Amino acid sequence: PKTRQQRCWVHKTANVLNRLPKSSQPKAKRFLHDIWQAETKADAEKAFDTFTKTYEAKYPKVAECLLKDYEELMSFYDFPAKHWQSIRTTNPIESTFGTIRHRTKRSKG
What's this chain's function (predicted)? Predict the structure, then answer.
């Protein structure tokens, strides 16, 4: 069975930003948000290209970090737009389980 995989954009954004100097992070973060918050896949692809062209010469590991997961990062665009928000990040799931873990630890200890 073939199942489409989607990488979490919140985690990928953090991974990419960690490879940049602090002074470059705010601009890069805006570029990354332009990718995963684009209204169409075509707009996202343009933003993706802009990001990689902007950073690959000076920060090749940053561009590589993003490029290696291109298919898994962009797969949510192949689904109906109403589902994009819940597909492109795992944070709501982690937030729910974080609350459960917090309550479980408090009740045990």
Answer: Required for the transposition of the insertion element.
Residue pLDDT, tens place only, 78-95: 999 888 887 877 765 454
Confidence of residue 70 (pLDDT cuts 50, 70, 90): very high
Distance (Å, rounded) from C-alpha 43 to C-alpha 51?
A: 12
The phi-psi region of residue 80 (left if phi > 0; otherwise alpha if psi is between -120 and 50; otherwise beta) is beta
Contact by Cβ (8 Å): 31, 50: yes
Q: Cβ distance 53 to 28 under 8 Å?
A: no
CA angle 72, 13, 66 (to 5 degrees): 50
CA dihedral 79, 84, 88, 92 (to 10 degrees): -130
Contact (Cβ atoms closer than 8 angstroms) between residue 44 and residue 74: yes
Closest listed residue to residue 66, CA positions, set 5, 6, 31, 15: 15
pTM for the full predicted model: 0.77
